[in-house]
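I am still getting used to backbone structure tokens and would like to learn alongside you. Please make up or recall a protein chain and show it to me in full. Would you write everything just below, so we can both look at the same thing?
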Amino acid sequence: MRAVAANMAQAAGQTRAQASKAQQRRLQLATPGMQLSASRGFSTSVQDLLSPTDTFRERHLGPSPADVVKMCEVIGVKSIDELIDQTIPAQVRRHDTLVLPDGKLGEAGSLKMIKEILSKNIQAKNFIGMGYHGTHTPGVILRNMLENPGWYTTYSPYQPEISQGRLESLINFQTLVCELTGMEVANSSLLDEGSAGAEAMAMIARTVNSKSKNQFFISDQVHPQSIDLMKVRAKYFGIELIIGDHATTDFASMTKLCGAMVQYPDTSGRLVDYSAMGEALHGNGAHFVMSADPLALVVAKPPSEFGVDVVVGSFQRFGVPMWFGGPSAAFMACSKKQVRRMPGRLIGESIDRLGNPVYRLALQTREQHIRLDKATSNVCTAQVLLANMSSMYAIYNRSDGLKRLAKRVHGLSQLFAQQAGKAGITVTNSEAFFDTVAMDVSPKSAKSVVEMLQGKGINLRAVNDTLLTASFDETHLEADMHALVEALKAAGVGGGSPTAAANLAVTGELPAQFARTGEFLQQKIFNSIHSETEMMRYMHTLQLKDLALDVSMISLGSCTMKLNSVSSLTPCSWPEVANMHPFAPESQTAGYRELLESLEKYLISCTGFDACSLQPTSGASGEYAGLLVIRKYLESKGQGHRNVCIIPRSAHGTNPASAAMCDMEIKWIDDSTGMDLEEFKALCVEYKDRLAALMVTYPSTRAFFEDNIQEICAAVHENGGQVYMDGANMNAQLGLTSPGMIGADVCHLNLHKTFSIPHGGGGPGMGPICVRGHLAPHLPNHCLVPPSSGGKAAERAGAVSAAPWGSAGIACIPWMYCTMLGNVGITDTAKYAILNANYMKARMTGHYPIHPTNKHNRCSHEFIMDFSEIRRKTGIVEEDVSKRLQDYGFHAPTMSWPVPHSLMIEPTESEDRGELDRFCDAMIMIRAEIKKIEDGEWSAEENPLKYAPHIQTEVAGTNWTYPYTREEAAFPAPWTLKRGKFWPQCARVDNQLGDRKLKLRLDE
């Protein structure tokens, strides 16, 4: 968020002596309160003797020193340094020292330091609301899901046979959304409420698809952070936004309108009957969007009864902490006819090979990894772990418990409105509200009243000069309500005769006009669990169905499934981290701000750039933010017409999808053997008058560091463009090279890959961007919490997240990761990632064709195995191998990308040699099985690869008709017996049937 001075970056040619002195000066800036060991005055031997013994480097890196020696022998190098020299081009190597801690604090010392920083946060009593509310995370969910590696270390459920647990939980979530909104279908989460609104607007624009209907109306009673975000999205989507009072707008006469959006309850707390608005919109061929509070929907009339077409919102208050803005699970729900245009992941039902009902990812052809720039959205990582938490929160409370909870919250707000009325305070929305009471405090200034109450540890919201709101949630007590009334009286609010609200009855019931009628959430799962024992066992049952890092390595290429350490995750559950409102005053958030500024400096050092924004909430969101920054920079130079973006064919699907969202014209370039420099230069010259950007991944997704990357970047600059580096493969760069070294101008970082935030089964993530100094004035802004670095708001890219720092609640994870590893340890992560990949590649060579790498035959941190020849000879395809790996106890690598008919393997630095060998042995044994097909011992149709995976009930059953034994099917390797067998929960899933017969929610 804040621009940081360019002198934080080390000059590439600085001598080691200079770097050491600079390191000592800067380290204290990057980590407040830390003292360098050299300043303690001890001898080295005494320092070593008294240093903490729980240092993190040896706990994080998999191979032992003895293993490294043996692995280098297999690779054919004398040392790991020789391997790095053969892997990364000399001209882009870093020779400075990362400006990070020294890594000597140890895990306990690092936790002590972050505790001291975060203790500077002041936990006030929050009544701010605006989509962020206090909530109680049930301990059984906190311990058994949020803090459970069986849940948080899983990947997106692309392999349904080993993902049935979280898939079941997610279809519970989709059902919950549908039941509360009254809509037919829902997705399994989006990033936040504001971006969900922007996605809905874009979906409607695509649905209408008419230049004559390019206007979109947003009620001025939508949360301001959502409006702010939607302004940015509309600009490059060709949508004309109209922001106004829905009550006085004549929608019937607005013939150019494609859609409109309202808030329910609105940002001032009112419940509004939108039925007439819905009719007017539909009569004019426009679509109706509503951003709704799911807790209100427990007792309030559902959006479907107002004629709403699309519903969005956030489930944060269903058991997920505020976390200073995120992460939490947003959602979108709509009708079945719109489902193929809906963004985000969809969970559907199908059957497996044996006819059993199973769950799977549905309609993936909508998504960016398949449709590229034609995708419905760039959404990739969403908020799966948080969606699962909210789903479990609903299950644990049950439908009747949710009703009691919602009525209690409403009752508290009713009681407050009544007592405020008795105190002479004017309540402006007493006719119909849910949890938010609005008060006219004139002639007092709302801002001055807010500031006075902040001094008493109470946070309210000033809507305008005279209007205050107080929002209640499940954490508030009756005593809190009375304390608030007394504080308002002490601030000089009210004091006259009782107002109309004094006569309000405290019933917990909404006015009949807005009350929900009829039953909902009647599915058994939402009404059958009441005890903690039952809840614990249900979550454990689901957990056992999924293969996570607590079972075995997950070698997905370009996904970096490394260790997510307990020490890094521990602070996430602390109250000073979890219970902070994103719009709390600066005076209360000093700890968070110090932590975030420190993390920004760490990332700036790692990238070799000058400034950073932590606002993007995923890698795809970071891509979008980075391209927005480039567009704003070019516009500031009078070059706004530049809109051509060059993208290699091997790029992640999010790249073209993000470019399309920024209204860029995409020009593809083939890089099947690396980008041809002359061809690339010619392409730059061809579009020199309109060239805006190159999006490039380094090292390449084809698994090697290109030698000519600096010349490629220079060609872009010579022709007026900027270079965006996709940071997906940053784990191979740390401390060895950097985006700054190669000539890039902006990059995003996947903190849920490189910096150890868990994937959570598909989120949460963080995708901050780092930029060179000339782009710093254009970093994302926020309408409610401006960046401390200042700058002109008009020059900034605008908001890409509803919260100022995005998913700030998980920023402690990368901070701990960097602090515990230190500058040497962080660099070693890249070295060991490259070591492990090249070791596995060396072991696989001779068994499988390996996709070409660099001139030294070295890959980066991943490598690609080619199955084209095996496919041609035997009919065995990469999917067959992927499914067969499940029988060996492993998750499949990345399949069929970036090269068709391939598997891309990324082991990460956290895996020990024994695990690497087990995986390699599994692949070699599978190759021997393929050889039996080649030799005719097994037919191309009847073999363990085609029938994989094999499930427990089938293997233990009485009917076994396959031409191989049960042992060959289920226990093909010795470790499947010695270490315990992981059983896939279903046989191979029928994907085609699941898309033909869509079923996206549970039956009633």
The mean pLDDT is 94. The CA atoms of residues 133 and 317 lie 6 Å apart. The chain has 34 helices and 25 strands.
